[in-house]
Amino acid sequence: MTAVLFDAPGPRGRRRVLVGSVVAGVVLAGLAVVVGLRLSDNGQFAGDKWGPLLNPSDTSFGPLWRSLWGGLRATLAAAGWAMAFSLVLGTVLAVTRITARPWYRWLVVSLIEVLRGVPVVMAIFFASRVLPELGVHLSLRWYLVIGLTAYNAVVIAEIIRAGVSALPRGQTEAAYAIGLSRGAALRLILLPQAFRIMLPALISQVVVILKDTSLGAFISYEELLRRGNFAVQSLGNPLQLYLLIGAVFITVNFGLSRLAVAIEHRISRPTRGRPSATTDVVP
Fold first, then answer.
1. How many CB atoms neighbour CB 31 within 10 A?
2. Suppose 105 and one of 52, 100, 143, 275 were both cysteines; which one would form an S-S bond, judging by CB atoms 3.0 to 4.6 Å apart?
3. Helical H runs in 100-223?
């Protein structure tokens, strides 16, 4: 394949790249050895540190994993509701901003810009403190969901609006030419294409929602990280537990990313038996 952004390196360049890679690998391996030795000297590889996580015969193994499993379920439940509400409300906000009349479009834009500028932890804290004062009493999970939705819905709205704006103008003109209204053109033609081209950005935002559920600890919602904090206080092995919790988040987020790739490949695959738009029809 011909290089587009840079010239392919020659023999000397390839040798330099190889030498640099070997040196970098040796340095990283040396750092890993030094870190491992320091951790060993501090007793971080001792059995009593890892036993509650890996040894089923340890008395703390069962209670710890039951607690972490409950925290993971709470995390996934809050993240799932926040993802669903954010996608729905974000789509509604995007369509409203696109189709709004000039005399009230400023109101929609102002709402989006205000919520985008508020840190998500403030949105969660606001929901948990202000809503009860207004007589809205909910569980901690729903305060977390409301805060996450308030922030992420406007971000998703801007992602979808950018996707619609990126479509060729001819798409809209063709929809009007066959008699579709603005709303029908968005629903039937523009939004499906916008979701397809912006799917990577949407999945990235969904991953952010999952990670931000850890902010529920600020309102005492017992999600995975807060359960881990409780376990650290009783077991005294923060390094091991936080490594485990981090691995759980990485695994779940990696699964979401793989799911997004599978969905993207599926919706990009041409339908069998349907002629492509470039097929020449001979009369």
1. 10
2. 100
3. 102-117, 120-133, 140-166, 169-177, 182-185, 191-197, 199-212
Cα(176)–Cα(156) distance, rounded to whole angstroms? 26
Distance CA 159, CA 253 (A): 20
Q: Answer for the pair 51, 61: CB distance below 8 angstroms, yes or no.
A: yes
CB 155 within 8 A of CB 205: yes
Cα separation, 91 vs 183, whole angstroms:
13
* 37-92 confidence digits (pLDDT tens): 887 777 777 777 888 888 888 888 889 999 999 999 999 999 999 999 999 999 99
What's the CA gap between 161 and 155, in Å, rounded? 10
Q: Which of 29, 140, 16, 51 is nearest to 43 (CA)?
A: 51
pTM for the structure as a whole: 0.79
**CA distances, 77 to each of 64, 73, 149, 153, 222 (Å):** 20, 6, 14, 17, 12
- Residue 247's pLDDT is 92
Provide the CATH topology of domain 76-224.
MetI-like fold (1.10.3720)
Supply angle C-alpha 61, 79, 248, rounded to 5.
35
